[in-house]
Amino acid sequence: MKKDPIHPYLMASAITAIPFILICLTAMIDIDFLTVIDQNIGQHLYHWGPAPFTSFVQYFTLIGNAQGIIPLTLVIAGAFYYISRKWKVLLWTVFTILVGVGPVVYIIKNIIQRPRPSYLTHLVDQGGYAFPSGHATGAVLTWATLAFLTWYYFKDRYPKMMPYLIGFSVFMAVAISASRLYLGVHYLSDVIAGWSIGATWFILCLNYFNLFIANKTSAENDIQTAHLKEK
């Protein structure tokens, strides 16, 4: 019997959604309990570095803003369109990152409507609701997408580089997310929920890539075809 290719992706996305669901349930049952935990942890992660480091974090966190994510997404999408010569790859990249960090996060924020931390002084100007962290969601989606596409198209050519690529992508996702805690504009549970949503959305989009892009032709054939078109 042929296995359903969708099943493992649905299972994986269900698992990655668990932290988000648990945080939501905890907030519904006892929001004060969740807030106390967030505050106890958050005060130790807030503004612990010297002034030069704080200035660096204030600029670094801009990578996760719309002004950072949109250009980065377009660069990634354009680069892998050039590599693959497939419009589907370009559209998949834009859809995966920008829809996930845009409408999906916006809808959830406005349903939950959790205020940002008020017990700390915000070290950057940030409006809107706190839950989930859009920076955390966007960081996961952006760097996971970049890591996946690089792995998909170059894993056979540069296998030794893949662990470094994955490590760097994880570092960037964590660092951008942590900057929100350092600057006092998010609770830890906001960030964890953002990671959960980002991972879940990415896996669901990965299923589409597997069904409608990856199964058509191999990555190596994509690159070879692109090179032939150039000649």
Describe the structure.
- This protein is 75% helix and 0% strand.
- It has 231 residues and is an all-alpha fold.
- The chain has a single domain (7-230), classed as Vanadium-containing Chloroperoxidase, domain 1, CATH 1.20.144.
- Helix 6 packs antiparallel against helix 7.
- The radius of gyration is 19 Å and the shape is globular.
Q: Biggest β-sheet: count, sense, barrel?
A: none
User: What percent of residues are in strands?
Assistant: under 5%
Number of helical elements = 9
**Overall number of structural domains:** 1
Helicity level:
over 70%
CATH fold name, please?
Vanadium-containing Chloroperoxidase, domain 1
CATH architecture: Up-down Bundle
Rg from Cα: 19 Å
Q: State the order of secondary-structure elements, H for helix, E for strand.
A: HHHHHHHHH
Structural class assignment: mainly alpha
> CATH class, anyone?
Mainly Alpha
Shape descriptor reads: globular
The total beta strand count reads 0
Flag low-confidence runs: none
Assembly state of the chains shown? single chain
Gap from first CA to last CA? 44 Å
pLDDT average, as an integer? 88
